[in-house]
Design goal:
about 425 residues, alpha/beta, Aspartate Aminotransferase, domain 1, Aspartate Aminotransferase, domain 2, 2 domains, 4-stranded mixed β-sheet, 16 helices, 15 strands, about 35% helix, about 15% strand, binds pyridoxal-5'-phosphate, Aminotrans_3, EC 2.6.1.-, adenosylmethionine-8-amino-7-oxononanoate transaminase activity, aminotransferase
C-alpha cells in the first residue's frame, strides 16, 4: 500500500487536513466500500452521485473487461466503432421526446462546455450570430472549466479565477427557507423567480442571449429543488424569446429523481441536456450532451466533406466508456433502477424528515433518492459543523457528503429500507452528539 501521500495534489479537498488523517477506500461492492484495514462503510452518496446501480456490478465489469480485450481505442474523428452508435440509439430511447442526438464527452464539465458552445454555434449557424450571451443561475454548479464556472454561481469556485467568460449573467437562485423550509418534495413558493429571466431580457435584449443553463435540482450547492411551476415558467420565457434552455442533468440523470431524467420527472423538456456520472455508473469517465433534432440539423449544411461542428475530444465515445455505459443501461433496465427512486421516495422522505427537531437542523429537502439536510453554521466557521458531522458518520461506517453546511445524500438506487435506516440513524446520532 502507498504510504507517501505527498505527491498527489487532491481535487476539491482540504489536502493538509486529509493527509494528517487520510480516509482511504480500497474496495467496493454493492452498497458498500471497504477501507484498506477492512472496515465496511455504507455508501450514502453513490460514490459522488454516480454509482447509481451500486458498486462492482457484474455486467458492467464484464463489459469493460471484454471491450479492453477486443478494441482498446478507436479514433473518434472521422472514424468510429459500432458501440458508439449502439449506445447513442439506446440512450435516445430513454431521453425525453425530441432529445434524439447524442454528442459524447468525458465528464460533466466537458458536457457543459460542449452544450454552451453548441448553443452559441447553433444561433450563429441559423443566422443570429448576435446571440452569444449565456445565462446561468446564482448557486448553480456546472463543473470546473471556464464556461462552467462562468455560468455557475458558487463563489468559492469562481473568485480565484479572474474574469472568466464575458457576456454572462445570472438569474436569482430559488433557495427560500423563509417560505419553504421543511417542504416535502418540491417547495410550494417561488415559481415567480423564473421571471428573473425577463429582467435580464429587458436589460440585455433577447437578441443577445443564446441560452439559459440550470440544474433541474441543484446538487452541489446543497440540494435545491425547483419550486412548483418554476421550470415550466422558465421554459415558457425561453420559448417566448427564442432562448435555448439547457438542463444540466449531470447528477439528476439516470434515475436519481425517480424517472430516467429530471426533465421527465418535472414534465419540462429542455433543448439541450448534459449528463455524465450515472451514464457509466461511474466506472469509466464519460459524459454526453443530448440535443434536439432541429439544433443538430442547423449544423448539417454546407459542403458534405466539411466538419460541421468544430468540437470533440480524443476520448469522445471511448470504447471502454461505451461498453461500460451499455452494461450500465442493461443493469438499470433489468433491475428497474431508473424508476426505483420513485418507489423509495416516500420511505426516504419520511426517514429524512424524522431528523427535524434535532440540534442545528434548519431545513430538510428531498426528491427521489436525493436528500439535503441544512444545518445552522457555527458562527465564524461556515461549513465546519457539517464537516464534523461527515467525519463522525465516516467513523461510524457511513459515507455522506457535505457542501457548505448542508449534508447531501444520494445513495445508490439499489438501496434497501434497512440501509436508509442505517444512514439516517447514523446521521441522527451524529447530530445529537454534535448538539
Ligand atoms: C450539475 C453538475 N454539472 C457538472 C458537474 C461536473 O461534472 P464532472 O465533475 O464530471 O466534470 C457536476 C459534478 O458534480 C454537476 O453536479
Amino acid at each position: 500500500m502507498t504510504t507517501d501521500l505527498d505527491a498527489y495534489w487532491m481535487p476539491f479537498t482540504a489536502n493538509r487536513q486529509f493527509k494528517k488523517a487520510p480516509r482511504l477506500l480500497s474496495k467496493a461492492s454493492g452498497m458498500h466500500f471497504w477501507t484498506p484495514e477492512g472496515r465496511e462503510v455504507l455508501d450514502g452518496i453513490a460514490g459522488l452521485w454516480c454509482v447509481n446501480a451500486g458498486h462492482a456490478r457484474p455486467k458492467i465489469v464484464e463489459a469493460i473487461r471484454a471491450q479492453a480485450l477486443e478494441l482498446d481505442f478507436a479514433p473518434p474523428f472521422n472514424m468510429a466503432h459500432p458501440k458508439a452508435f449502439e449506445l447513442a440509439e439506446r440512450l435516445v430511447q430513454l431521453t425525453p421526446a425530441g432529445l434524439n442526438k447524442v454528442f459524447y464527452t468525458n465528464s460533466g464539465s466537458e458536457s457543459v462546455e460542449t452544450a454552451l458552445k453548441m448553443a452559441i454555434a447553433y444561433h450563429r449557424a441559423r443566422g443570429e450570430g448576435s446571440r452569444t450571451r449565456l445565462i446561468g443561475r446564482e448557486r448553480g454548479y456546472h463543473g470546473v472549466n471556464f464556461g462552467g464556472i462562468s455560468v455557475g454561481g458558487m463563489v468559492a469556485n469562481r473568485k480565484m479565477f479572474g474574469s472568466m467568460l464575458t457576456g454572462v449573467d445570472h438569474i436569482r437562485h430559488t433557495h427560500d427557507p423563509a417560505r419553504n423550509a421543511f417542504s416535502i418534495g418540491q417547495p410550494q413558493h417561488g415559481a415567480e423567480l423564473a421571471d428573473d429571466l425577463e429582467r435580464l431580457v429587458a436589460l440585455h435584449d433577447a437578441s443577445t442571449i443564446a441560452a439559459v443553463i440550470v440544474e433541474p435540482v441543484a446538487g452541489s450547492t446543497g440540494v435545491l429543488l425547483p419550486p412548483q411551476g418554476y421550470l415550466e415558467r422558465l421554459r415558457a420565457i425561453c420559448d417566448k424569446h427564442g432562448i435555448l434552455l439547457i438542463f444540466d442533468e449531470v447528477i439528476t440523470g439516470f434515475g436519481r429523481t425517480g424517472a430516467p431524467f429530471a426533465a421527465q420527472r418535472f414534465g419540462v423538456t429542455p433543448d439541450l441536456m448534459t449528463v455524465a456520472k450515472g451514464l457509466t455508473n461511474g466506472c469509466v469517465p464519460m459524459g454526453a450532451v443530448f440535443a434536439k433534432q432541429h439544433i443538430h440539423d442547423v449544423f448539417m449544411n454546407g459542403p458534405e466533406h466539411l466538419i460541421e461542428f468544430f468540437h470533440g475530444y480524443t476520448y469522445s465515445g471511448h470504447p471502454l466508456a461505451c461498453a461500460a455505459a451499455l452494461g450500465t443501461l442493461d443493469t438499470y433496465a433489468e433491475e428497474g433502477l431508473l424508476t426505483r427512486a420513485s418507489e423509495m421516495e416516500a420511505y426516504f422522505a419520511d426517514a429524512l424528515h424524522s431528523l427535524k427537531g434535532l440540534p442545528h437542523v434548519i431545513d430538510i429537502r428531498n426528491i427521489g433518492l436525493v436528500g439535503g439536510i441544512e444545518l445552522a453554521p457555527i458562527d465564524g466557521s461556515p461549513g465546519k459543523r457539517a464537516f464534523d458531522i461527515f467525519l463522525e458518520c465516516w467513523e461510524r461506517g457511513v459515507l455522506i457528503r457535505t457542501t457548505g453546511d448542508t449534508v447531501a445524500l444520494s445513495p445508490p438506487l439499489i438501496i434497501s429500507k434497512t440501509h436508509v435506516d442505517q444512514i439516517v440513524g447514523t446521521l441522527a446520532d451524529a447530530l445529537k452528539r454534535a448538539g
